[in-house]
Amino acid sequence: MASSQSRRGGVSLPERPGGRDDSIITKISRSPIVARGKQAAGDAAFVANKLLRSTGKAAWIAGTTFLILVVPLIIEMDREQQLNELELQQASILGTPAAIGPPK
Q1: For residue 13, what pLDDT is reported?
Q2: Which of 26, 38, 95, 98 could be cross-linked to 91 through a Cys-Cys bond (beta carbons 3.0 to 4.6 Å apart)?
Q3: In whole angstroms, what is the distance from residue 47 CA to residue 60 CA?
Q4: What are the pLDDT digits (tens) for 47-97?
């Protein structure tokens, strides 16, 4: 009766035989299937983390390479195009026929 007085108005269930009070949630959480699922989720998180890090490293390498090699090439090609346009303008002002393309 002491246990019913400490609960204040709740219904107390009889003790289970064997002294173990395992609920269905406890049984499910201790099952090997759940343990296997937790292990698989942990492995998937590990692989995703490694993939994310390696992808980040690859993106850094590609971006740096692009800045060092490709951007100066684009700038030089733009300068050459501007120089060709300037030559065409000068040729048209002076009245000489403009050569289109490289000389033969």
Answers
A1: 58
A2: 98
A3: 20
A4: 999 999 999 999 999 999 999 999 999 999 999 999 999 999 998 888 766
CA 47 to chain centre: 12
Task: Give me 29's structure tokens.
Answer: 């959480």
Residue given tokens 């400490």 in the structure block: 6
Structure tokens that stand for 18 in this block:
């064997």
Triad 78, 83, 89: Cα angle to 5°: 125
Kindly state the DSSP code that residue 20 receives in the 8-state scheme.
-
| Number of helical H runs and strand E runs in the chain | 4, 0
* Mean pLDDT for the stretch of residues 18-43: 82
Percentage of residues of the chain with pLDDT beyond 90: 49
- Contacts of 88 by beta carbon, 8 Å cutoff, 6+ apart: 98
Rounded Cα distance between 88 and 80, Å, is 12
Is residue 34 within 8 Å of residue 26, measured between CB atoms?
Answer: no
CA dist 48 and 50 (Å) reads: 5
